[in-house]
Specification:
It contains eight helices and 14 strands. The protein is an alpha+beta fold and 250 residues long.
């Protein structure tokens, strides 16, 4: 069986049949991501909501310490699905999945959840034909637990950038974020949005650096300022949207 091989800036991917092997260029990275994926697989039990199955990716043992072996899903990323269908409602699936992860992993004492700092619409698969939704790449961060708003912020920021790039429509951005938050709050079954300030403080330095880059290059000072305003506006938008969604649900 011929393998399909492709590369990113940090790993090589090899697809064989219904499995995919992810080989990191640096051994340290794989230990962190594998540990997170295994814990997520253990904590996150598949849930069916309105005919859709929300679940984690299945992880398989590997003899190679530089490889993570996972199931291969022949599905499109959420960003690809949005690009083709221009459908903001798809982002509710992304919110539901994150809300379920936080619901299953929330620790009452520390008020923390499992860390999924690379939560984005490019790391989220939507299998429309088989009605299943799952996230695939939590990132290779050392921290296992974090405040819930870390993934809320990274997820909503990716939605803002993707939808604006694909549609050039700010109203579409707001609509997509509304669906995302609606799904999240519905899955968590909570009465208010987690505070965002702890999440902003807990974001890794690497993630903050990425937010202020474009195609790997640093943004000019003026554009950095604009990006900072975008992030503040997004945080305010999340608060307003959550109030709107919860008020409508009451």
């Amino acid at each position: 069986m011929n393998a399909k091989v492709y590369k990113t800036n940090k790993a090589t991917f090899e697809v064989r049949g219904n499995r995919i092997r992810k080989k990191y260029f640096k051994t340290g990275n794989i230990k962190n991501e594998y540990r997170l994926l295994k814990i997520i697989e253990e904590k996150f039990k598949p849930v069916t909501i309105q005919g859709w199955v929300y679940r984690p990716i299945n992880i398989y043992p590997s003899d190679d310490k530089q490889v993570i072996e996972m199931e291969y899903i022949d599905a499109k990323t959420l960003r690809e699905s949005f690009r083709e269908q221009n459908e903001s409602a798809y982002y509710k699936h992304m919110g539901l999945w994150l809300g379920l992860l936080h619901k299953f992993s929330f620790n009452k004492a520390s008020k923390k959840v499992l860390n999924f700092e690379d939560y984005s619409d490019t790391n989220f698969l939507l299998d429309v034909d088989n009605k299943q939704a799952l996230a695939i790449d939590p990132g290779d961060y050392e921290r296992i637990k974090c405040h819930p708003s870390v993934s809320i912020l990274t997820g909503s920021f990716s939605i803002q950038r993707s939808v604006l790039k694909e549609s050039k429509n700010y109203f579409k951005v707001i609509k997509s974020v509304i669906f995302f938050m609606k799904g999240y709050l519905e899955a968590r079954e909570i009465e208010q949005l987690p505070k965002l300030n702890p999440g902003i403080k807990q974001l890794s330095k690497r993630k903050k650096v990425l937010w202020y880059r474009r195609r790997g290059k640093r943004l000019p000072l003026a554009k950095k300022f604009i990006r900072s305003i975008e992030i503040l506006v997004l945080a305010l938008l999340l608060k307003l949207i959550s109030k709107f969604v919860l008020k409508k649900r009451a």
